[in-house]
Automatic annotation (TrEMBL):
Gene Ontology terms, MF aspect: phenylalanine-tRNA ligase activity
Subunit structure as annotated in this protein's UniProt entry: Tetramer of two alpha and two beta subunits.
The name this protein goes by in its record: Phenylalanine--tRNA ligase alpha subunit
Lineage: Bacteria, Bacillati, Bacillota, Bacilli, Bacillales
Primary location recorded for the protein, binned into one broad class: cytoplasm
Organism encoding this protein: Virgibacillus natechei
Record-listed E.C. numbers: 6.1.1.20
């Protein structure tokens, strides 16, 4: 049995020395030291030895096990070290190479425009309000003097979810909700930016989803001249101090009287060009005095309170201000287009 143990030790050490991989080393350990390994099989026969030989053979067996175990550990450390060195060589980084430039993003052009408009109106005492994009028929239409069957509803071409729920076609419902919250006995001065939706065919000047900013001021003795003054400040701050405005009569169900506002064409300075269709003016927004019916439905007494409202499209304002000729550019996420306006 001593000869068997020594032969196992010699064979195991040679196998360990010749091993080149961790898997191979693990297989050697199982072959010689495992439950069914060579050393274990020999030790099972110790019971047949004379009693006086068992301690001697046992001592030899322990020494053989320790020798093989130490050899396995040493070889394992060596293979791990070699594997690490190989990995470091193959994954080496040349720290002298120039770094790769990191692409820095920035706010979307429409975000910039909306924030610029918000800052302007906040400076004039307006607060910013928001509301749900999924709106009820009542707040989107009826509370704004557009009862069921009103022909002006056709202008909105609405996305209906149910008979009573829809994707809002304008941000005016935020105005109605805000006025209701004041119980008809307090002034309201607010703007409400947000996304709106209409069933429209997308082309260079139309989109089924776009942005709007609407404003509202309700108080005692609010006049049309107040609206004109506010809009004149807006036009000059957004398009330049030399811009002029004009108000033209128009119609909106929720305002009476209603107006469209034009600004003088920046390209031709009012002389007439293809941009302004030879008129010298460009339509920019609509507004007017809040209709008495809208005030009453919101809980305000139109004999005491009056107000004005206006609505504008940041998309159109951005197109005019920066010379963008296709509204779809704002929504196609073309980085070549968007990066031009990171610092706009």
């Amino acid at each position: 049995m001593k000869d068997q143990l020594e032969a196992i030790q010699k064979e195991a050490l040679e196998s360990i020395d010749n091993s080149q991989e961790m898997k191979e080393l693990q297989a050697i350990k199982v072959t010689y030291l495992g439950k069914k390994g060579s050393l274990t099989s020999v030790l099972r026969g110790m019971g047949k030895l004379p009693a006086e030989e068992r301690p001697v053979v046992g001592e030899i067996a322990n020494r053989v096990r320790e020798t093989i175990t130490d050899a396995l550990d040493e070889k394992n450390d060596k293979l791990e070290s070699e594997a690490l060195e190989k990995q470091l060589e193959t994954e080496a980084i040349d720290v002298t190479l120039p770094g790769r430039p990191v692409q820095v993003g920035g706010p979307h052009l429409l975000t910039n425009i909306i924030e610029e408009i918000e800052d302007l109106f906040i400076g004039m005492g307006f607060e910013v309000r928001e509301g749900p994009e999924v709106e009820t028929d009542y707040f989107n239409f009826e509370a704004l003097n557009l009862p069921e069957g009103h022909p002006a509803r056709d202008m909105h071409d609405t996305f209906y979810i149910t008979n009573d729920l829809l994707l809002r076609t304008h941000t005016s419902p935020v105005q109605a909700r805000t006025m209701l919250g004041y119980d008809g006995d307090s002034s309201v001065k607010m703007i409400c930016p947000g996304k709106v939706y209409r069933r429209d065919t997308d082309d260079a000047t139309h989109s089924h989803q776009f942005t709007q900013i609407e404003g509202l001021y309700v108080d005692k003795n609010v006049r049309m001249s107040d609206l004109k003054g506010i809009l004149d400040v807006f036009a000059k701050k957004m398009f330049g101090e030399d811009r002029e405005i004009r108000l033209r009569p128009s119609f909106f169900p929720f305002t009476e009287p209603s107006v469209e506002m034009d600004i003088s064409c920046k390209v031709c300075e009012g002389a007439g060009c293809s941009i302004c269709k030879k008129t010298g003016w460009i339509e920019i927004l609509g507004g007017g005095m809040v209709h008495p019916n809208v005030l009453e439905m919101a809980g305000y007494d139109p004999e005491i309170y009056s107000g004005f409202a206006f609505g504008m499209g940041p998309d159109r304002i951005a197109m005019l201000k920066y010379g963008v000729d296709d509204i779809r550019q704002f929504y196609t996420n073309d980085k070549r287009f968007l990066k031009q306006y990171h610092n706009a």
